[in-house]
Amino acid sequence: MVSVVKKLLPGAAGTAGTGGGDDDFNLVTSLYHFNGSNAAQNSTFLDSSDNNLTVTAGSDVPAQGTFSPFSKDSGKWSTHFDGASHLLWTHSDFTFGTGDFTVECFVYFTGNSSTSGGTFQLSTGNNDGTSPAMALRDSTGLTIYTSSGQKITGNNNTFAMGVWYHLAYVRASGVVRVYKDGALVTWNDGTTTATDTTNVSGTAMAVGRYYSDSYRLNGYISNFRVNKGTAVYTGAFTKPTVPLTDITNTKLIACSTNNHLLERSSGNKAITNTYGTPKTKPFSPFKNSAEYDPTVHGGSFLFTQNTNSYLYVSHATLFDFGTTDHCIEAWLYPTQTSFNTSWAMWASTIGVNQYWAYTNGGGNSAAAGFSSYPAGGYSASNAHILVPYTWNHCVFQNTGGYENWYLNGTRIYNVQNNPNHGSSATGMMFGRANNYASNYFYGGYMSDVRVTTGNNYNPYSNASTLTVPTAPLTKGSYTRLLLNGTNAGIIDSAGNTNIYVYGNTQLNTSVKKFGTASGKFDESGDYLVIRPSAYSQHVDLGIGPFTIEGWVYFNSSPTDGQGLFQFDNAILGSANGRGPALGTYNGTGKWHRYWGQVGDVARYDNVGDSAATPAATTWIHFAYVRDTSDVIKVYIDGTQIGNSITYNSDYTASNILTIGGYYSDSYLLNGYLDDFRITLKARYTSNFTVPDVQHPSI
């Protein structure tokens, strides 16, 4: 969807140069190209079958995004750690005993103190660290912990900030060696080996920290791999140039896919816990090879496991299955490890009380697995529970007098039973059971929902296995409903942030600055929101420098107040915690900025009083910048307007981002936005030539 032609060079000038990327992409927290098909928006749910049925949502509208079973781009992503976050996996595979093992990863440091460089640590819990462990001591080298004690590297192993390094911690035949970019590391004592024959008994692998929560990483980790029983490297080697793979004895490969925070070894270990807000980023030593293409990568719907988070499709006859052959299938990615009343609904018919669900068993081990109603059949095996934080392909079919449940291609339940699945259904619901709204609902992602029905037809035969799809599902003559989730519309090209769409905010292909479209806002309830949640990343400006920029096109001269963006601790709120905001001032239509709030007093000024009123029906570049000296400036078309101000507030609490409005729903944009980008760096420190190409997405 995105064509990258040039890259923006770092520095005050900010001029466009030749090349294929952005040198500061690692500091980009949000990037909205607003590319896509006309009128697409995240809150519009499309039925791709020939029936083109209307899909409605509950008041807690499921978010749409680019995350799907087919959008992993495995190996070419990383996890960003902000100094207050880390990941934890707990498993017996990390009990290395006295044998060989290897822990390796790529790391990109953005902080060079001993308290900001924790890379990993094996422990028996979250904080009681044992060995092995590794951290950046400072720019002069590493701190390594073995069972025999601490080792520190010297000046011959310096580390630059903002560079990808490959680090490997290896124990081979009771001897520990550490490698940096394939070269053997020398300790300060002049040695290159450490004897370690200890029985390593830890079970918890912490990534992004060591020693305690006070020693977390500022930086990125990619392709974190653990091998138990193998010393992968026994001498100097060439630094890997491709993503790490699942080789013999691999127990973990993490921080390398946009598949949430899932690891991708054959063991598919679910993460034990996520601390703080580590973020998946399309940034790695290998970068991201493919832009999002809905026909190739699909999309998904995110349900928040409450009674108002669901999708509903109404029709008087299409879902009257009766005794006719039919099939209901979907991809499910649970983000909950337990479910209300043990059950989680993923589909139900309305009017005849037909349910398709799975359960974690609860107190009734006999009910573990999958279940359908009214047949009452279920798979009584705990092995058939969906794995949290991984995509599970689920199929229920009624064919030839048999009912079958399939999980990831294997039939887990089969019964010769042909109940009447209703002849008066009025619709279908996904993510919730209508008659059990207070108890039975789904939490997580759902993708590629397809319903087929017809005598003597079924997409899968009555066999013990089926072929799991490797691409988004397509429609056929018997397809009654198909929800691919491919109409993601407005997406964040800097990560997998879920965007909440309000009003009729949509893409428009006729008015655009770059690419295929822009974001259209009609001043009547239209705006976008990025907010913290259990399922979504968010934007945090913190205490450092940043640049908020983009292009705006006003439909008419903005004599009223129109907001471009706002950071706050509320959506379009005037509550305490207001952060940066930019728009036009009500009454004059000239530029107006906010930068903070003390108590109930907002800090703002009419920054455009000395500048011209923004022109209508033309593209205007805006940039709101705070530099390393806490100086805040606003640039319009590359020229500073208004005064510079100094404000050193911590914007961490102002982490709800509204795009297309500020202050209240009376101050919304009437026009278009394009190429909206946030970078945790002052890209511009003086007047500059505005970019003449689309911002690079890598």
Helix content: under 10%
End-to-end gap: 13 Å
For the record, the count of structural domains works out to 3
Which residue ranges are poorly predicted, with pLDDT under 50 across at least 5 consecutive positions?
1-19, 363-367
How many strands in all?
51
CATH level-two architecture of the largest domain: Sandwich
| H/I helix tally | 1
Gyration radius over CA: 27 Å
Overall mean confidence score, pLDDT: 85
Strand content: 35-45%
Q: Kindly identify the CATH topology of the largest domain.
A: Jelly Rolls
The structural class is mainly beta
Silhouette: flat
CATH class term of the largest domain: Mainly Beta
- Summarize the main sheet: 9 strands, antiparallel
In terms of topology, how is this protein built?
Blueprint: E1 6-8, E2 16-18, E3 28-32, E4 55-57, E5 63-65, E6 78-82, E7 86-90, E8 101-109, E9 118-123, E10 129-138, E11 141-146, E12 149-152, E13 164-172, E14 175-180, E15 183-184, E16 194-195, E17 204-207, E18 209-210, E19 212-216, E20 218-228, E21 250-254, E22 273-275, E23 279-281, H1 294-297, E24 300-304, E25 311-314, E26 326-334, E27 343-350, E28 354-359, E29 369-373, E30 392-399, E31 402-407, E32 410-416, E33 427-430, E34 443-453, E35 479-483, E36 500-502, E37 506-508, E38 518-522, E39 527-530, E40 546-554, E41 563-568, E42 581-584, E43 591-598, E44 601-605, E45 619-626, E46 631-636, E47 639-646, E48 656-659, E49 661-662, E50 664-668, E51 670-679
Antiparallel strand pairs: 1-2, 3-51, 4-25, 5-24, 6-20, 6-23, 7-17, 7-22, 8-13, 8-20, 9-10, 9-17, 10-11, 11-12, 13-14, 14-15, 14-16, 18-19, 20-21, 24-34, 25-33, 26-30, 26-34, 27-28, 27-33, 28-29, 30-31, 31-32, 34-35, 36-39, 37-38, 38-51, 39-48, 40-45, 40-51, 41-42, 41-48, 42-43, 43-44, 45-46, ...
